[in-house]
C-alpha cells in the first residue's frame, strides 16, 4: 500500500471506500425523481385552463340538451369546443387532475407502508410505532437511528414502498402523524391527541388480526375532506368480503376519531364489537404537494386557527 511509506502524522485517520457504481446509480435515481417531479408540476399547472374549459363544455352540453340559446360567455369558443365535445367519450369528458397522477394505481397495486419514528424515540413511541405497523397490512417498521429524512425517502422509493408513515412525540406522548405518499406526494401532517395504546385499553384489547380491514370513512363531505379520505384509504389494500376486521375514521368538527375493532356475529341479527386498538384523535394542519423532504413544495392546505371565522368553519 502507498500509505506505508508515509510518516504517521501524514497518514489519513479515516479511510473511505467509494464505489463508482453506487454513485452513478444514486445520481441516476435523483435525476429520474427530478424529471418525474418536473413533469408532475407541469401537468398540475395545466389544471386551471382545463377546468375552465370543462366548465364551458358543461354549459354548452346543458344548453344543447335543453334547447336553449347559448350563453354569451361561450359563443366565441363554441366552434372549437363543440368539435372537442363530439370526439369525447365517457372517460375523456372529465378533466384529469394531479390526484389521478398521485393515486392512479389505487386498487390495482397493493400499498406497501414503511412506519418509522422521529429521532431518539421513547419506549412509548416505539410501542406506538409497533402497533401502527400491525395496523397497516403489508407494512414494515424501520428504526430511525441517525438516518436523515431524505435518506429514508430515497430508500423507500428504491424498495417500492407506496407510503411513509412517521409518528412523532413530545415528552414521551405521541402527538404527531405524517403520511407521505410516494413517489410524488402529497404529504399530510396531523396532530395526535388522546392516544390510547393497546395495553392501556380497558377492557383488554382483542387479539390483532392480520386480515385486510374494512374501512368506514364518515363525515368527509368537502373536496378537502375527500382528499383526506383518499390519503387514508390508499394505506389499506382491498379486503375480502368475509373479513371481521374494521377500521373507522369519523370526522366531527374537523377532528378525526380513529378506532380499530374486530366483530363477531352473535346471532343472525346481532353483532358484537371488540376493540383492538390503538385509539386516538387526529387534527389535520397541513397538506403539502410533495414528499416529506421537499420543503419548497406548495401547500395545498394550511390550518389557520386564528382567523375570525375559524371557530365557525369546518373544512373537512
Could you give a short account of the major beta sheet?
Answer: 11 strands, mixed
- Range of strand content: 25-35%
Low-confidence runs (pLDDT<50, min 5 residues)? 1-18
The percent range for helix content is 25-40%
Tell me the Rg in angstroms: 25 Å
Distance between the termini: 66 Å
Query: What is the N-to-C succession of helices and strands?
Result: HHHHHEHEHEEEEHEEEEE
What can be said about this structure in brief?
The chain is α+β, with helices and mostly antiparallel strands and 316 residues long. 31% of the residues lie in helices and 26% in strands.
Could you list some keywords that capture this structure?
26% strand; eleven-stranded mixed sheet; alpha+beta; 316 residues; 11 strands; globular; disordered N terminus; 8 helices
Structure write-up:
This protein is an alpha+beta fold. It has helices at residues 20-45, 47-66, 72-75, 78-87, 98-102, 123-135, 149-158, 223-233, and strands spanning 113-117, 139-141, 163-170, 173-181, 187-196, 214-218, 245-252, 255-267, 270-275, 279-288, 299-302. Strands 1, 2, 3, 4, 5, 6, 7, 8, 9, 10 and 11 form an eleven-stranded mixed β-sheet that branches. The longest helix is centred in the first third of the chain and has 26 residues, at 20-45. Residues 1-18 have low confidence and may be disordered.
Sequence-ordered SSE layout with sheet pairings:
Blueprint: H1 20-45, H2 47-66, H3 72-75, H4 78-87, H5 98-102, E1 113-117, H6 123-135, E2 139-141, H7 149-158, E3 163-170, E4 173-181, E5 187-196, E6 214-218, H8 223-233, E7 245-252, E8 255-267, E9 270-275, E10 279-288, E11 299-302
Helix pairs in contact: 2-4
